[in-house]
Design goal:
about 400 residues, mainly beta, Jelly Rolls, 3 domains, 6-stranded mixed β-sheet, 5 helices, 24 strands, about 35% strand, binds heme C
């Protein structure tokens, strides 16, 4: 687990660029040893990259060996310096994000130093063993697996193909789940997958898959309620890269709680539909409708959503006394990655606190993801969903 502020990484890099090569730290700092692939870079790639950049996964090229990684050295350097890879782009001032995928400034500088030194292999005997492909379900044994009713043929589009699949649960009673996980049927072309449950209060996300992210699970005693008769909706985003292919069946696994449920995870949001972005506008801002906590609460996680023109998304918690904290700052929005940012320690939101959101869009031609800079963009093509999950601090359903 790692955590850092994006700007700190950049400052660290600027410092390193000025100070010249090889910062190996500690006692070695005065006599820098050459940074090599085998000893220094492979461990970073194995930990942070190969979940996607390995055979059969969705990354465009494997990065499991020197031979595979060497031709990409410069591209790797720019991707990590720009913090485009691994995809993440967020920080919190309210504590550690438990599933933070970003590299530390030190890891970034190791990669930069390696590339600047000519990307040497070093002693191949220093290579760490290639991590085994993980177990089928990261959550452990599921209690229930729901799959798409039939295979889905994916058209040969150059970029995105979307699919929506209902997964009826047919539970005779309310169920509490402690973990949920998505298993793509065709990992090679699955960009991401989301699972929602629809009930009278709206649509709540239950689980998601992007490569590298595992099961979503709740703290002990906390569970998500799946009401009797609930229908899960599986929302798939494929990237078939111009080739017709098929998804033989994406599956969703659930684990039910086997301990008394103390608190129910509640999904809520602060967002807005009042989107109206002029053509070509490079910086358009909007505040979401604030959410007021009517009881002492704890925030578990955040799931912001925007589309292609999104740039930044922030959540601020404003305490009853007026103090405020940026509880999530997505400083680099990428519409094609949807992350749930899970706090290692839930954030206390005392009664009367307000959660406010703030989004920024770029509808200019310099936004490479923008499909049409000449369009006036309203709600629909763009969205602003500031989902989050929280529990009521005083709730105790166990009766103890
Ligand atoms: C969650 C999956 C995932 C992880 C983790 C990940 N990548 Fe990627 N990477 C991708 C995908 C998908 C692309 C294709 C472009 C895109 O969607 O951004 C990509 C593109 C790239 C590219 C650009 C390739 C090109 O065609 O120019 C580089 C370089 C890269 N990744 C390096 C890395 C490195 C280095 C790491 C680890 C530090 C890493 N990636 C971690 C999924 C991932």
């Amino acid at each position: 687990m790692r955590r850092h502020q994006g700007w700190k990484a950049l400052l660290a890099l600027a410092g390193i660029a000025a100070a010249g090569p090889a910062v190996t730290g500690g006692t070695e700092a005065r006599q820098p040893r050459q940074v090599t692939f085998s000893a220094d870079v492979a461990p970073i790639l194995y930990e942070h990259c190969i979940a996607c950049h390995r055979e059969g996964e969705m990354g465009p090229m494997p990065l499991t060996s020197f031979r595979e990684a060497r031709p990409w050295a410069r591209a790797i350097r720019s991707a990590v310096v720009a913090m485009d890879m691994p995809p993440w782009g967020a920080t919190s001032d309210a504590g550690v994000i438990a599933n933070d995928a970003s590299l530390t400034p030190r890891e970034i500088s190791t990669i930069v130093n390696w590339v600047n030194a000519g990307a040497p292999e070093g002693d191949s005997r220093a290579m760490p063993p290639l991590p085994a492909v993980g177990p089928r379900w990261k959550m452990g044994t599921p209690d229930l697996v729901l799959s798409m009713a039939e295979p889905f043929d994916i058209a040969a589009e150059p970029r995105s193909v979307y699919g929506d699949f209902p997964l009826p649960t047919s539970f005779a009673e309310d169920k509490y789940i402690r973990a949920a996980e998505v298993q793509p049927g065709n990992r090679d072309v699955t960009h991401h997958a989301n699972v929602y449950v629809n009930d009278e209060s709206g649509s709540h996300r239950v689980a998601s898959f992007s490569p590298g992210t595992g099961a979503k699970s709740y703290p002990p005693g906390v569970a998500k309620l799946l009401p009797k008769g609930a229908v899960l909706n599986l929302d798939m985003h494929y990237n078939p890269k111009g080739r017709a292919t098929r998804d033989p069946g994406t599956a969703v696994a659930l684990q039910f709680t086997n301990e008394p449920v103390r608190q129910i995870a509640i999904t809520a949001q602060s967002g807005s539909n009042a989107i109206d972005i002029p053509p070509g506008e490079a910086h358009w801002e909007l505040a979401g409708k604030p959410f007021v906590f009517e009881e002492d609460s704890h925030i578990l996680s955040f799931t912001p959503r925007m589309n292609e023109r999104g740039q930044r998304f922030r959540y601020h918690l404003v305490y009853p006394d007026g103090r405020h904290t940026t509880v999530l700052n997505v400083y680099k929005w990428r519409h094609d990655w949807v992350f749930t940012y899970v706090m290692e320690n839930p954030i206390a939101a005392p009664k009367g606190s307000r959660l406010e959101t703030h989004a920024v869009w770029d509808n200019s031609a310099s936004n490479k993801a923008n499909p049409d800079p000449t369009a006036r963009v309203k709600f629909g093509p763009e969205i602003m969903n500031g989902y989050f999950e929280y529990v009521l601090s005083g709730q105790n359903l166990t009766g103890k």
